[in-house]
Amino acid sequence: MNEVTIAAVSKALPPFCRNTHDIIPFVEMWLSGQDERFRRKVVKIFEGAGVDKRYGIMDIDEVFNATSFEDRNNIYVREMKKLGTQVLQNALAKSEWEADSLDFIITVSCTGIMIPSLDAYIINELNLRQDIVRLPVTEMGCAAGVSGLIYASNFLKSNPGKRAAIIAVESPTATFQLNDFSMANMVSAAIFGDGAACVLLSSEETCKGPKIVGEEMYHFKDATHMMGFDLTNTGLKMILDPEVPNVIAEHFPDIVHPFLARHGSKIEKVDHLIFHPGGKKIVQTVEELFGKLGKQIDDTRSVLLEYGNMSSCTVLYVLERFLDRPISAGEQGLILSFGPGFSAQRVLIEW
């Protein structure tokens, strides 16, 4: 089998940005017809979400104005094309690769609908090769960025001397439901933001960067109700079970330890935890579990604070931080994310 190397990770941000304390007045206006106790509870959720700032494809006035599913999805399509193209260009510049050197392109997004998928537009915009292999990943939610790493790794292991790009572009803002006053909608509004990330991987012998040691998926049985979207007349309506952190904690030993053992490692050998910041409660749950093992997830918390949860992109923002700092040869990193299904995706890397 060929070795697979992570060559570069980059990000791109939408044009609009707001601090949480600037968003709260809009939230209070939106909830003005609701019970006062409920309004106070929602404001506390925003204040305690562990998110200081977030970016968006729409200005905040547009977010809180009633528009149709069609209008919001049109904005999603327009902005995803821009962000997807920009983030791939950023990654190509970082790695000093030419656009037409890519053999495999994976595009990841679950927060809107576009057919043809994003990759088709990027191929035209950046003049990628006509024989490039395409894979759009559309229904794996927050776990899909790591799913893309797994698919690309498997492709490259079987094909020496090849290059792959994973492009994750998400706009949870486009799924915000003005007429949904459920706790799932409140929590998702408090934690989510928009963004884009790109990872370049290679099976070339000369490529520098951390190697992928192993990758696996873990499926929670009978847990399809825990996370996802309902497709409604007003758009994609968030499903978010409050039991998610508890279920993760319950399965945690089975998710982490056997996976590491199968790839000749153990938690004591893992130097860097590259964990998806799903939300404050999930971060606290995993932090406590890893803390007992003598590990920390400071970068995960920082990304949540600075950008919010951008669904599939977010763990790749965490990964970028590690790729951009000097790390000694032989050190290992564990990439971990959770998403609809319910599932956990894991990748072990080594510098």
Keywords:
single chain; 351 residues; Peroxisomal Thiolase, Chain A, domain 1; 5-stranded mixed β-sheet; 13 strands; 39% helix
Short summary:
This protein is an alpha/beta fold and 351 residues long. It has helices spanning 20-30, 36-47, 60-63, 69-95, 118-126, 144-157, 183-191, 244-262, 280-291, 298-307, 314-323; strands at residues 5-12, 16-19, 53-56, 104-108, 133-137, 163-170, 195-202, 211-219, 227-232, 235-240, 270-275, 332-339, 343-350. The protein has a five-stranded mixed beta sheet with strand order 1-7-6-4-5, with helices on both faces.
Q: Would you mind describing this structure in some detail?
A:
- This protein is of the alpha/beta class and 351 residues long.
- The chain folds into two domains: 198 residues, Peroxisomal Thiolase, Chain A, domain 1; 140 residues, Thiolase/Chalcone synthase (Peroxisomal Thiolase, Chain A, domain 1, 3-Layer(aba) Sandwich), CATH 3.40.47.
- Helix content is 39%, strand content 24%.
- It has eleven helices and 13 strands.
- Strands 1-7-6-4-5 form a five-stranded mixed β-sheet, with helices on both faces. It has a four-stranded mixed β-sheet with strand order 8-13-12-11, with helices on both faces.
- α8 packs across α9.
- The protein is globular, with a radius of gyration of 20 Å.
- It starts with a strand and ends with a strand.
- The model has no long low-confidence stretch (mean pLDDT 91).
